[in-house]
Amino acid sequence: MQSQRLSPPKVDPLTRFRLERAMVQVHRLGARACLEAVLEIGVHRHVGDILDALEAFAQLDPAVVRRVGGDRFPVQPLHVVPPTRSAVR
Fold this sequence. Notes:
0% strand; mainly alpha; single chain
């Protein structure tokens, strides 16, 4: 395994929202559908990178992930509110 980075990559908020919702739908189809989706992505990107990321996530303790809310997406998308000049001191 080459990378231990588990922080999400920088993605614009709308794209992230769409990815979350699509992943929920694919996850509902089961493990096989999730694998097929990953393999389809691998056609367009190096499969080794995907495998590294999956192996890193596979090492996480499911109970800890559930405890910190990492097993579900936020109910509503979060909105980034840029600071205003009056808020910067």
